[in-house]
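User: Sequence recovery, please. Input:
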């Protein structure tokens, strides 16, 4: 799978719907989301770290405005002047087909399904009712975007991440989507690869420091 602006638009649309944010718009050769959070005012997303990204960054003089591109962190570092901080790497991934097998929850855990903003949200709880893991999936125009997958520290290495991804994927399968996307952290990438997800591209982020 090759990366183009349409693919990034589908990912970013799901990301925005999951948070109740405005949908991305085309802007300056890339994509723009007006996030509006105190710690993130907006984000600009580009296919590469070329002239469009560099021109965008040159117009930014304040913190909390993020610039992202489907490139390795060192490529983004080379494209931007020294004040810009490069964050930990992320990875754009896709799943070419539904997960092949049903996955049961480990004993002692239960699941609930709800809806927040534009996302279906699955939460896992332990036998005492305390939160253990959660994740969400946005289903939009044939694409499923998986987002905010998290297992709390006391419950890791018990198979909850695998079970959670299986439950989210079942929702995607029921909707008959043809494309599954997510952006993984370094820690999450290994789990997703074991579940059949494939690396599409690195996904790197830069921001001006707040002080």
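Assistant: Recovered sequence (211 residues):
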């Amino acid at each position: 799978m090759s990366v183009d602006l349409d693919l990034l638009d589908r990912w970013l649309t799901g990301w925005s719907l999951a948070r109740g944010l405005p949908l991305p718009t085309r802007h300056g050769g890339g994509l723009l989301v007006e996030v509006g959070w105190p710690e993130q005012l907006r984000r600009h997303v580009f296919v590469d770290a070329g002239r469009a990204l560099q021109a965008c960054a040159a117009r930014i003089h304040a913190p909390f405005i993020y610039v992202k591109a489907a490139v390795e962190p060192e490529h983004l570092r080379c494209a931007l002047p020294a004040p810009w901080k490069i964050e930990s790497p992320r990875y754009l991934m896709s799943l070419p087909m539904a997960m092949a097998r049903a996955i049961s929850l480990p004993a002692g855990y239960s699941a609930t399904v709800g809806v927040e903003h534009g996302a279906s949200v699955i939460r896992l709880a332990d036998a005492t009712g305390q939160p253990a893991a959660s994740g969400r999936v946005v289903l939009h125009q044939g694409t499923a975007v998986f987002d905010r997958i998290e297992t709390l520290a006391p419950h890791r290495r018990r198979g909850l991440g695998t079970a959670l991804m299986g439950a989210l994927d079942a929702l995607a399968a029921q909707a008959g989507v043809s494309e599954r996307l997510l952006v993984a952290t370094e820690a999450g990438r290994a789990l997703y690869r074991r579940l059949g997800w494939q690396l599409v591209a690195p996904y790197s982020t830069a921001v001006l420091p707040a002080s």
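The chain has two domains: 5-91+202-207, 95-200.
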